[in-house]
Each structure stands twice: as C-alpha cells, then as structure tokens.
C-alpha cells in the first residue's frame, strides 16, 4: 500500500469536514488487472486490512499502477492502516505496507464517525 | 452597504500559501474584505485562497461540552494546560509564518515542552539525511535558468506542486534554457506511473522499498564500477540503470528533486543520504543539485526559525531545561506513541488526520489545544479551540520557499480573527501571569507580608 497526495484531496484538505473531502480522501486505486480479479464494479466498496488496522474505501482503477499495488489518498482513512513505529527517525512508514483486500457491503465511514468516542469527540 | 456598491480591487504578485513552491504570481480580486477570484493559481492554491467554512469563535470544553468563550479565557485555559503539563508537545507550525514560529519557540521553552513540526511526518528523514551527508543545493531560479536535466524521484509534482514544472523546472523558459521543455530531459523514478511520469522522457518503475538499492546501483555506475551491479536491481534491468546513470553524467546542469516516495518508505533517512551521496558524486562529472519537494508553504520556515533559535530544526525537547534533539525519541509521533506527553498544542496543522491511527488515538487521550482557521478532525479532539487569521490572506509575514528563499506574504483583507502571532503572544502573557500568581502563592509568608 502506498499513500500520497491527490489533486482532489489537496484541494479539499483545508475543508476536511465537508463531504467532498471524504469523497476525495476515501478513494483507493488498483491496477485494472487487480480490479477485475476482485470482480469489482462501480458502487462497490473494499475492506482493506493491515497488521495495524482496517478501513473501508471506494475502489477505482488507475492504469499507472502495477498489479499487487494499492494507492490511496493520504488522510485518516489511509492512516488507519499505518503503524506507529518511527524506525528511529521520528517518521512512520506511510508507504510500502502489506495489506489484504476483500469486497464488502460495509459503507465508508464519514469523517466525524472516524473520530467518535475519542477525546473531545465523545462529548 | 447602505445602497453603496462594495469596493472592489485587484492585488497582483500575491504569494500562494499552499505548497512549498510559494508561487508569487497570483492575481487576487477582492470585494470588500472577501476574496472573490484567484487567477494564475493551481487548483490547490485557488482552493486555499478562496477560503472555506471557518471556526467562528474560541471554545473551551466545560463539563463535557464545548462552550463559546472570549479569546482571553481561551488563552488562560491554554496557559493553564501547558503550565501544568509535565512535558507538553507544541506541534504543527508548517502553515503559518516565521513571526508566529518564533513566538512558538519562546512559548515551548517557557513551558519546558517539545517543539515539533509537520516535517517529522514528511521530510524529517530528509533533514536527517542532509545533516549526515550535506546538500549540493541551488535556488529554483538557478534551476529554471540552467538545468537541462530534471529528475523527479519518488515525488509527483503534477498533483502535489502543480505549478512546479511551469515556474521552476520542466516546462519553463530560462536564461540559458530558451527552448523550455524541448531543451530539457525529464527523468522520473517511482513505484507507479504518476501524472508526473506521463510528462517524462524517461520513466523507471522500481519495486516498492528498493530506492536505496537502485540509488546504490547508480552510484556504482557513476563510479565506473558498473560491472559489479547485478542483472536487475529494484526490478530494473542493469542496462536501463546504465542508461540512466549515463543520462545524469551527460547533463550540463542536473536538478534532482525527491519526495515522500523515499522518506516514507523502507530506508527513510538512509534513502535520502544515499540520494545525496549520488548527487555529490555526480559533481565529479558535471554540475548537479538536489532539493526536497517540501509540502506545506512554510514547513521550510519552521526548520529555519527553530535552527536559528535553538540550533536544531525540529523535534526539540526543552523538558531538561535546554534544547535536546533526537528524532526517534523526541519527535511528535515518538512521544505520542509512547505516551510520553501529557498535553498537546496544535497550531496550523491537523495531526488527527495525518498521524497513524494508533498515534492519533493517544493524542485523543490528552488535553489538546488547537489554533487554526478551520475545523478539522483535530478540532473534534480539542479541549480548547482558538480560531486564527489566515496567514498570507488576512495577515502578513515571512515564509521560506522550498529552496530556502525567504519571501514576504501580504495581508490582502481585514479579518475579525487575531493572527497566530497575536494568539501566541496572548498565551505567553497568560503563562507569565499564571507563573507570577503561582510564585506569589508559593512565596514564604514573611516575604509577602
């Protein structure tokens, strides 16, 4: 798994509580080959799991990706899959994380729900 | 407007406060105190300057609910949290101006906390690599006017710094580069074919996590020891790597830009060190420079301010009474993941969104003070919320471009919100007041009599 900036994520990143940010930052991208092998189609979601967490995202095809790689917009959804270890340099490893994918009926969690029952949000 | 039309005006040469390109050619149309249109900006910059829904008023959580309060009450509450914490973390700083950052260093020292910037989840490994190896640098102006080879390694400016190519690197006409894009070679190295790769003359797709090995192979070719390079490195055939090394050596002036593709993947700081070593060695053959593609518009500025104020660029721990720097121990993610901080002040950033989930959950366990113009997930975790003016739009200040050039940002419109610098000054005064009150309360009775 690789996470990074996309134009849409960047354009909405100063307005994170709006639906447009959720739409932009809850997208993940697969190669055409992987997309077809998972029998995915428009309107379906994928459940992605790593050793550190799980998240539901909306899959899209990116023809620039090689098979076996998933790219996702940076943000709270992608960071659900990232571990805390900083490798002695203060920076977590946001890229190159092994993940597993499966199709799911679960919806994508909206931005406020992602932070419910945490700190101030629980009040 | 009492029947009168609102006054309209146009500001030229406005700086963009989104990414590290800090473009200075924007034209902003203003009506009254509102930005109505932004020209010459990319999609990211236009979105930033046009503005979004704001936090309207300071808030404090009381009895489980956040209530609207005055700025003074918010400053006093923030000071109370910081003074009573054993090791507060003061984090963010990338999207504000140097004048505010300077106040931030002072406040951190006063409360014996840790000052860290968003660089530690971004180009922190680059800073460590540069400290270890040194950097063969240049300004973006020099690159625009001289470079005939542009290398983008693990970065995607087409989406993260959209005007980089048009203003500074691939597609711009310069004094010694009159043919623009036609007169330049563009090499892209990445693990996926990005939008940037589609504009390249040569694109090398490497296996994820193999940057260090591929850079080492190129160093071998540059050193004339290519016969020791295996048949394939990082999924790339040896012959292709030879071609790339040759392309780099043949350039008259090469510019190597690198991004989070190497700082966020296996190797991190060591990848950067290896890239810097390759560039240093290329200078035995030709002129080559290297630059990290900085993300936030003034993340380079907090590195500068922290370095001249404390001697260190980030992750500075004042809890021992003097500045101590050791990323891996004192970076924001380190102290939060270990539970080694008991209060966090966040300014001009959104760690709740940008930290790994486990670290964010630890952030939610401690009192959080947020200073920001906009509501974001960090607001949801905050005990104290202080809305601020937008630097570069509603207040002026200095920012550093990704090449280290200091530029002055204008105030374009009036704002009802105080600047980050004013807010920090308010908190500093509250800290002094609180300390004075504590000193008075703790003084021996006969002395105070």
Layout of helices and strands, plus pairs?
The complex is a heterodimer of chains A (123) and B (449).
Chain A: E1 2-4, H1 7-12, H2 19-25, E2 27-30, H3 32-37, E3 45-49, E4 54-61, E5 70-73, H4 76-79, E6 100-104, H5 111-114
Parallel strand pairs in A: 1-5, 2-4
Antiparallel strand pairs in A: 2-5, 3-4, 3-6
Chain B: E1 8-14, E2 26-31, E3 34-39, H1 43-50, E4 59-62, E5 65-68, H2 71-84, E6 89-92, H3 98-111, E7 114-117, H4 124-133, H5 140-146, E8 149-153, H6 157-160, H7 164-167, E9 185-190, E10 202-205, H8 211-222, E11 232-233, E12 236-237, H9 238-250, E13 253-258, H10 260-263, H11 269-282, E14 287-292, H12 299-310, E15 316-317, E16 324-325, H13 332-338, E17 344-347, H14 351-354, H15 357-363, E18 368-372, H16 377-381, E19 384-387, E20 397-400, E21 406-409, H17 420-442, H18 445-448
Helix pairs in contact in B: 2-17, 3-12, 3-17, 4-11, 8-9, 8-11
Search tags:
heterodimer, A: 123 residues, alpha/beta, 5 helices, B: 449 residues, Rossmann fold, Dimethylsulfoxide Reductase, domain 2, 3 domains, nine-stranded mixed beta sheet, five-stranded parallel beta sheet, 18 helices
Description:
The complex is a heterodimer of chains A (123) and B (449). With 123 residues, chain A is an alpha/beta fold. Chain A has one domain: Barwin-like endoglucanases (Beta Barrel). Chain A contains 5 helices and 6 strands; from the N terminus they run βααβαβββαβα. In chain A, strands 1-5-2-4-3-6 form a 6-stranded mixed sheet. By secondary structure, chain B is of the alpha/beta class. Chain B folds into 3 domains: 8-49, no CATH class; 54-120 and 297-445, Rossmann fold (3-Layer(aba) Sandwich), CATH 3.40.50.740; 124-292, Dimethylsulfoxide Reductase, domain 2. A 9-stranded mixed sheet of chain B has the order 5-4-19-18-17-6-7-15-16. A 5-stranded parallel sheet of chain B has the order 10-9-8-13-14. In chain B, strands 1-2-3 form a 3-stranded antiparallel sheet. In chain B, a hairpin with a 2-residue loop joins strand 4 (59-62) and strand 5. The mean pLDDT of chain B is 95. At the A-B interface, strand 1, helix 1 and helix 5 of A face helix 1, helix 4, helix 10, helix 13 and helix 14 of B.
